[in-house]
Write a structure and sequence with these properties.
Layout: E1 28-33, E2 38-41, E3 44-47, E4 59-66, E5 69-74, E6 79-84, H1 100-113, E7 126-128
């Protein structure tokens, strides 16, 4: 929205990635929805209520980018995968990058803050390749 010069609506959460003074080390969260959780109805994409439900509804995984590393937590399998972001413009020193378990806990904390029941996530998280 900043890039387009549009004011952030009151209902929208989050902060600009490009605003002056934006921290290059702050976590950036991503969400992936379950495959097949939405259907097209009259040229509109709607959630298929028969395919979603507690505890995470239409969310299959949540990722967090910390420095030049991406952590992706599969919510059904409790598996955390890691990948490095090639060409990151503000890389951190390796000692400043959180461990997989710390990054996974950030994701779990975010879910809990948003009211999700995280009791089905098995900890310690398994690390996948």
């Amino acid at each position: 929205l900043d890039y387009l010069g549009i004011e952030q609506p009151a209902w929208m959460i989050g902060r600009s990635l490009i605003a002056p003074g934006a921290e290059s080390t702050r976590p950036i969260f991503t969400v992936q929805h379950k495959h097949g959780a939405s259907v097209m109805v009259r040229k509109e994409r709607l959630l298929d209520k028969a395919k979603i439900g507690p505890p995470f509804y239409s969310i299959s995984s949540i990722g967090v980018i910390l420095c030049q590393r991406m952590y992706l937590l599969d919510l059904e399998e409790s598996v955390l995968t890691l990948s490095d972001i090639n060409g990151h413009t503000s890389p951190c020193g390796e000692s400043d990058i959180p461990s997989p378990q710390e990054a996974g806990q950030l994701i779990i904390d975010l879910l809990e803050e948003d009211g999700y029941d995280t009791s089905s996530i098995r900890t310690p998280l398994r690390i996948g390749g």
